[in-house]
Specification:
8 helices, 9 strands, two-stranded antiparallel sheet, Glutaredoxin, Lgt, elongated, alpha+beta, TlpA disulfide reductase family protein
Length: 267
């Protein structure tokens, strides 16, 4: 299990944990505000600093990915954050508040302890319930001309990325350019774009939209899963779901939702 379904909304568990930890910190500050009025300000600026610091360090470490479109570094709603950058931002704000004696350490500790405990328990829980690693198997798929093909026949020499998607999925459409760019940057890899439950004509028309911007990489394969069997076989709750395999067909990484190009390129 790597996500939860809330009606039509499917939320990855790692992002849900971040929201819960931030919510816990804000709740603690609200409950303690009568004894420490500046606590709410500390929490607000700490969260802002964590977001900015996490983004800046990620962009700095992956600067080459933003050279063609540097303004995308400002897209804070997209994936692409460094945990250590967020920690440094939070520590910087905390140090400023403590050094100027605007806030006592005991109140910072009182507000932060529940959030830290929740984070530790959450990380351990995510490790325990993470879906078991899968291997590339011989599931039957179709090419756009309806020719049957086995998944194992399309395995790449160095790495294979499988992207489960649909044209009606807005997040899938937002992420597709990054998937295509990942294939272009790693020519030894193989990227399989497996459409779930749609007709060959629908997928063909969508592919043509991307071809208008230039030729697509040769290591990109557009495939069909008419009955969406991979969702069940891989215990995926929805789309987009991305699974990365090594040269031997063993799972390297798996995630749901939109993720940064750097995550797609990770070895």
């Amino acid at each position: 299990m790597d996500a939860v379904s809330l009606g039509p909304l499917v939320l990855p568990l790692d992002r849900l944990l971040v929201l819960l930890v931030a919510g816990s910190l804000m709740l603690s500050a609200w409950l303690l505000q009568r004894r420490a009025p500046r606590l709410n300000d500390w929490v607000t600026w700490s969260l802002i600093a964590a977001i900015v610091g996490g983004r800046l360090l990620h962009v700095g470490m992956n600067a080459g990915l933003y050279l063609d479109a540097p303004w995308q570094a400002l897209y804070l709603w997209r994936d692409g954050y460094s945990l250590w950058g967020a920690v440094l931002g939070l520590l910087a704000v905390t140090t400023w508040y403590l050094s100027r004696r605007q806030l006592a350490l005991r109140w910072v500790a009182a507000a932060a302890t529940p959030a830290l405990l929740l984070a530790v328990v959450g990380v351990i829980t995510l490790q325990m319930i993470r879906p078991q690693g899968i291997e590339l198997e011989g599931q039957a798929l179709q090419r756009l001309d309806s020719e049957p093909v086995l998944l194992t026949e399309l395995q790449g020499e160095a790495k294979t990325g499988v992207f489960l998607w649909a044209t009606w999925c807005g997040v899938c459409r937002q992420m597709m350019p990054d998937v295509i760019e990942a294939a272009r940057r790693e020519p030894d890899s193989r990227w399989l774009l497996v459409n779930l439950g749609e007709s060959p004509r629908t997928v063909h028309d969508y592919r043509q939209q991307h071809e208008q911007h230039g030729p697509l990489p040769d290591n990109l394969e557009w495939l069909l899963d008419p009955r969406s069997r991979l969702l069940d076989d891989w215990q995926a709750l929805g789309v987009p779901t991305t699974v990365l395999f090594d040269a031997d067909g063993r799972q390297q990484d798996r995630f749901m939702g939109q993720r940064a190009l750097s995550r797609l390129l990770a070895d």
